[in-house]
């Protein structure tokens, strides 16, 4: 039974200028305690919207988010605050998510002191310990974000999230801005912290290589719908959904010195006007007549494996 559950149906996320976007459509996803659930999708797939809803930064206009079995919207007072602190987000770009005028010590210590997780007297030891745990030298506690490298800023963002003792971390493209060698170090840190603190992760990325490195299970999102959900090993060895298969058709690009995935035929359609039936049909090499009108249900194709494709019957 999922303990941390995000059950989200027919969601509408409200973006910056209060413009309403139908970002997610009947997404029903349960994150299991202690797992790393990878969430993969192209831009416009709704993966960041889902991450923001799960972490409580945005709220859904329909559907519900359950935390430890309880509807999060119905919690109040101390229970609500505990549920909010329990799920923390680590952002894509630490430079824009870290206040440039705050010292690192304040960035990391502000929330735990405010929420009474640590008292003023214990704050310094708490900070020193956290900085060590994320691989930062505590001697740099009085520095400002711009005095650190990209990889170090990522660690500051992680320390800030950890400081309120979360149970779950939502990592949204948290290593996307980093060089490949630094990416590996930060991914290893995430996995070390998982072991040390018993953390659960929703790990959002457009990069299958990154997700393969960390995820226990992987959900593939396409234009606001989950099209495949499977243990990572199975998904990478035997992708079922034609979209997943296309994503995995990897072509190495030697000139760039890093992984590149073969672009899928056709443009990703606008999430505002997704194609009817199976959203993937205009780009799918196996599309049949019914794909243009009938939405394929996400259903079990093997134990613990879900896929949404008419080819499965
Ligand atoms: Fe392709 Fe049809 Fe399957 Fe969609 S439902 S992925 S269009 S075969
Ligand atoms: Mg995004």
Automatic annotation (TrEMBL):
GO process terms (BP): peptide transport; transmembrane transport
Molecular function in Gene Ontology: ATP binding; ATP hydrolysis activity
A Pfam family that the UniProt record links to this protein: oligo_HPY
InterPro entries on file: AAA+_ATPase (IPR003593), ABC_transp_ATP-bind (IPR050319), ABC_transporter-like_ATP-bd (IPR003439), ABC_transporter-like_CS (IPR017871), Oligopep_ABC_C (IPR013563), P-loop_NTPase (IPR027417)
TM helices/strands, residue ranges: none
Domain ABC transporter: 6-248
Membrane topology annotation: Peripheral membrane protein
Alphabetical UniProt keywords: ATP-binding, Nucleotide-binding, Transport
Keyword Plastid annotated: no
GO CC annotation terms, alphabetical: plasma membrane
UniProt subcellular location: Cell inner membrane
Family to which this protein belongs: Belongs to the ABC transporter superfamily.
Protein's recorded name: ATP-binding cassette domain-containing protein
């Amino acid at each position: 039974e999922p303990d941390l559950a995000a059950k989200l149906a027919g969601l509408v996320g409200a973006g910056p200028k209060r413009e309403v976007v139908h970002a997610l459509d009947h997404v029903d996803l349960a994150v299991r305690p202690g797992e790393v659930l990878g969430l993969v999708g192209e831009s416009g797939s709704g993966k960041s919207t889902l991450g923001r809803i799960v972490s409580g930064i945005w709220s859904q206009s329909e559907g519900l988010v359950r935390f430890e079995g309880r509807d999060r919207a119905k919690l109040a007072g101390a229970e609500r605050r505990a549920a909010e602190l329990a799920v923390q987000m680590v952002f894509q770009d630490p430079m824009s998510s870290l206040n440039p005028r705050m010292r690192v010590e304040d960035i990391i210590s502000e929330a735990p002191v405010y929420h009474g997780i640590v008292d003023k007297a214990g704050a310094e030891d708490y900070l020193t310990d956290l900085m060590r745990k994320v691989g930062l030298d505590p001697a740099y506690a009085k520095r400002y974000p711009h005095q650190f490298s990209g990889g170090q800023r990522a660690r500051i963002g992680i320390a800030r999230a950890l400081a309120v003792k979360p149970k779950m971390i939502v990592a949204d493209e948290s290593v996307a801005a980093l060089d490949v060698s630094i990416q590996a170090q930060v991914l290893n840190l995430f996995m070390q912290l998982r072991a040390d603190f018993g953390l659960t992760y929703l790990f959002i990325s457009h990069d299958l290589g990154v997700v393969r490195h960390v995820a226990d299970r992987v959900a593939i999102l396409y234009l606001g719908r989950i099209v495949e959900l499977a243990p990572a090993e199975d998904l990478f060895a035997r992708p079922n959904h034609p979209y997943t298969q296309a994503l995995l058709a990897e072509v190495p690009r030697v000139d760039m010195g890093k992984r590149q995935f073969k672009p899928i035929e056709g443009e990703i359609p606008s999430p505002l006007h997704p194609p009817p039936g199976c959203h993937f049909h205009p780009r799918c090499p196996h599309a049949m007549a019914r794909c243009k009108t009938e939405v394929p249900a996400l259903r079990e194709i093997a134990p613990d494996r879900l896929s949404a494709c008419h080819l499965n019957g």
